[in-house]
Alpha-1,4 glucan phosphorylase
Amino acid sequence: MSTEQTSATSGPTPVEAFKQNILAKLKYAVGKDPRNAYSHDWFEAVALAARDHLVDNWEETEAQVDRKQHKRVYYLSLEFLIGRLLVDCLSNLGLLETARAALAELDVDLETIRQVEPDAALGNGGLGRLAACFMESMATLGLAAHGYGIRYEHGLFKQVVSDGWQQEHTETWLDFGNPWEFERPEVSYNIGFGGSVRTEDDGGEMPRLTWEPNETLRAIAYDTPVVGWRGSSVNTLRLWRARAMEDLQLERFNAGDHFGAVADVVRAESISRVLYPADSTEAGQELRLRQEYFFVSASLQDLLHRHMAAHGDIRSLPDKAAIQLNDTHPAIAVAELMRQLVDVYRIDWNEAWGMTVATLSYTNHTLLPEALESWPVSLMERLLPRHMQIIYLINAYHIDSLRAQDIHDFDLLRSVSLIEEDHGRRVRMGNLAFLGSHSINGVSALHTDLMRETVFRDLHRLYPQRISNKTNGVTFRRWLYQVNPLLTGSLVDALGENLLDAPEERLRDLEPHADKAGFRKQFAAHRQHSKRALASLVQERLGIHLDTEAIFDVQVKRIHEYKRQLLNLLHTVALYQAIRNEPTTDWVPRVKIFAGKAAASYHQAKLIIKLANDIARTINADPTVRGLLKVVFIPNYNVSLAEVIIPAADLSEQISTAGLEASGTSNMKFALNGALTIGTLDGANVEMSQLIGAEHMFIFGMTAAQVEQRKRAGELDMSAVVAGSERLAGALEAVRRGVFSPDDPQRYEALVEQLVRDDRFMVCADFDAYWHAQRRVDAAWQKPAQWWKSAVLNTARAGWFSSDRTIGEYAVDIWKVPTNRD
Ligand code: 26V
């Protein structure tokens, strides 16, 4: 890519200047001499040198927004799954080759120092990674946007696989410091918990209510600059760290109570200690609610403070600020904003409510019942008494307004209530987020339809304009340019440098190249290159050799029953048996690649990991397989591993039970890099099949409607289906008998029993369709011209799945802010 800065007519060349800057950072900021600098020292020096290049634009971006009084966007998210930032930053600044050359002159390899940067893994999976893509796209589109979240001291756990079982180890991304962040000790807010509410008659219309918490801690800001493509605009990700009001209770310490003296510190700081390692499984703990309120309160105080400083009038808030809630995790913002407006700014309730709804909007990311947040009323009353009062009031006024519209249907009123009465009294955070927002969106067309029909059916009937769809996207800078520079080079050669500035439109121009043998050959050669890189990673980490001529068949994502890694594993077993039993068939060589973390408390998911490892060990050791099948489970899936795996995939597994995967985003990353998808009509796969063409994918299985129909009919016993499918029966039987677990033959008995008797996720029900789709894959692979044509067309037609497009839609439809593309 030739996006580098051109050299000035006099003075040192950009490479020389960058080199001098690196050396200066190494010496004066890191305190090291080139002769005794470790890789990490070099990394830090380069990161600091790169950072210098964005600080001016960062200031300028902020100054412009201030000057022009732009409306600001605030993205509130409990998760930002960022990964590494060095190449991201250099590449968006157009400094990647400059830095590479500067380092080469110092005898340092950029690739080596790139690897020592720890991943910022402040998220679990798709939801957190989406937030990171959105931050980059918002900067690229020139939106005045701030991300707000928590600066977890420990991100998502490190997965170690020991004897096939997942073990969780503490992740320590901050151990060597973090050159990207700026600590802002002066930006600090008090956050209260507990206590009571004091009523005071100050002569006004309403009594003045004041919350008097009995526990207060501080939120300290840490800012990370987020640089957009071509470096033009630089936004801020502001993460909060919890601190105690005092670091030490000196009196207690002096009295000899050395532990008691720091007890408050430990309690307060536990809030930003660690990311909740669960995705879509109930967390339920008080600490989680404390995290949610902590970051919401700090963020709202901060943005209200900024608003007042810029505009001086609280009433213009909806015109000057748009606050997006990333899932229900920040839904307490509805009550907190009301509290701020009513109790602190003394705005009348009705007006405050209008302002709140006009300012907030909410994105839903899952319909899974176990992931829909609700908090026991008793816990809310104890931790956030004033907020609980406010929630009751919102609820009461809402129900009153419905009755006033002559709506008396008891079931409807019950279903739209903020309080769930059935399973002990609980606050429904989804309903709170819905009522407090002017816009609610789903993350794919199918998911949005299902929101309207299921979880929010009644609220949707009352507010039919509120729900809209915003299909997810991914940033092409990271997920194409950075992870696949060779392919990007070919795209630029074919379509011109300016492709990089508007790939979502320009990629389509690639379509005619799909018919050119020469281009297809280049495309395939880049894939080979990526496959070799992945193969050497697997060789290094697992000691397993992979045949890069085989189909690389990849399923990488969180381990969850609905994502159906089990379906893929059963296919693996059935294929293994077929290769052994039908040796004369011309089997196409496959490498099955799995990776993903299981929530620590999700036993079934951990058992699936063990099964994958048991199957891999058995198959890889069996000489009768003749190299036709290899299975690997690569430990510790994270953003950096995804960056190696995704460009190396021939086949992308997107096989969730239809109706359960809200969108998926890895599906888009794989297609963008030219992998063909084997998938169900679920989430964004539906839109992918429309835009890419179902003939360039391998679509199979029940639709969401068919799944729903089967569930409703209670047809979950699959005994007859199993009996009717020799391959499925054979695979299940082998797993059940302990073929893959001779050390503990009963290990998978219950698992198989459940698949057969209670097939909630339609694994058995979809098996035959999946098997046949996999054979279509084999057939297509044997026609290389056709395969690579489809691959090129996948890339050419994936443009719409850019997060720039998604953010453009949020900007126009929800936030009402212009972008630099307007
Ligand atoms: C839920 C919970 C529940 C309690 C404990 C911690 C925790 C953490 C995260 C979540 C959110 C689960 C929702 C989620 O991650 N949804 C995913 O969002 C992606 C981006 O929209 C989407 O592509 C995936 O399909 C969807 O599963």
In short: The two ends are 27 Å apart (CA to CA). The chain has three domains: 12-68+95-117, 69-84+119-472+809-814, 518-801. The longest helix spans residues 39-68. The chain has a mean pLDDT of 96.
